[in-house]
Amino acid sequence: MKLARGFTLIEVLVALVIVAIALGAGIKAAGALGNNAERLAQVSAAQWCAENLLTELRLNQQSQNQFPDIGESPFSCEQLGRSYVGTLKVSPTPNPNFRRIDAAVADDQGVPLLSLSTIMGKF
Predict the structure, then answer these.
(1) Is pLDDT at 30 greater than 80 in this prediction?
(2) Superfamily of domain 9-121
(3) Is residue 68 a contact partner of residue 54, using CB atoms and an 8 Å limit?
(4) CA dihedral sign, ordered 106, 77, 42, 116
(5) Torsion over CA of 93, 98, 100 and 103, rounded to 10 degrees?
C-alpha cells in the first residue's frame, strides 16, 4: 500500500491565513510610512515659516532698533505651495532687556504643527 503525499486542506488554509496576515501588516506599515513622510514635510515647512519670521524680527531689530512689542499677533506664510497660519506671542522676561518670542504654526485647517521659541535681547 502506497501512502498519499501532499498537503491537507487544513494545512493549505493555515498557510493562506498566515500569508494574508503578513500582507495586511505590510500594507498597513507602508501606509503609515507614507503618512509619516507627509507629516514630516508639513512640519519642516512650518519650521521654515517660524524660523523666517523670527529671523525677520531679528533683522528688523538690528537695522531699525525695533524691540518687539509685548502681545500676540497672527501671521501667515506660504511654503512648498501650502499656506500656514500662526500666532506670534511676545512675552516679557524677568530681565527687561530681553523678550521671549513664541511662534506657533498650524496648517490651513488650524491643526497645530509646530511651536518655536527664542529669546531676543535689546542691542
Answers:
(1) yes
(2) GSPII I/J protein-like (3.30.1300.30)
(3) no
(4) negative
(5) 160
Task: Provide DSSP, 42-106.
Answer: HHHHHHHHHHHHHHHHHHHHHHH-PPPPSEEEEEEEEETTEEEEEEEEEEE-SSTTEEEEEEEEE
Residue type, 85: V
Contact 107, 42 (CB under 8 A): yes
pTM here?
A: 0.70
CA dihedral 13, 15, 16, 22 (to 10 degrees): 150
Q: Tell me the pLDDT tens digit for each residue of 84-108.
A: 999 999 999 999 889 999 999 998 8
> Per-domain residue ranges for the chain?
9-121
Q: For residue 1, name the pLDDT band (cuts at 50, 70, 90).
A: low
Instruction: Name the residue type at position 102.
Output: D
Averaged confidence pLDDT in the chain: 88
Q: Which three cell numbers stand for residue 122?
A: 535689546
